[in-house]
Amino acid sequence: MSVVIEHLSYTYNSGTPAMAVALKDVSVSVERGEWVSIVGHTGSGKSTLAQHMNALLIPQFGRAVIDGVEVKAKLKGLRELRRKVGLVFQYPEQQFFAETAREEIAFAPSNWGVSGGELDKCVMDAVISVGLKPELLDSNPFSLSGGQQRRVALASVIAAKPDYLVLDEPTAGLDATGIRELIQLLSKLKKDGLAVVQVTHDLQSALDHSDSLLVMENGVGVTLGRPEEVAEYLLKKPVQGLVIPPLVQFCAGLRERGIKLPLTSGMDVILKKIEERTGLSGAFERRNGTGGVLGGELNRCSF
Amino acid sequence: MQFLSGISLGQFIPGESLLHRLDPRCKITATFILLSGLFMASKIPDFAFWGIFLLSLSAMSGIPLGIILRSARPVLFLVAFTAALNAFWTPGREVFRAGFLSVTIEGLVMAFEMGMRLVFLVMFASMLMMTTSPMAFSDGLERLLSPLAKVGFPASEMAVMMTIALRFIPTLFEETDRILKAQISRGADFESGGLLKRARSFIPVLIPLFILVFQRAENLAVAMESRCYVPGMPRTRLNPLVWTKNDTGAILGLLAFISAVILFDRFALKSFIIL
Question: Which residue spans within A83-137 are E strands per DSSP?
Answer without folding.
Answer: 85-88
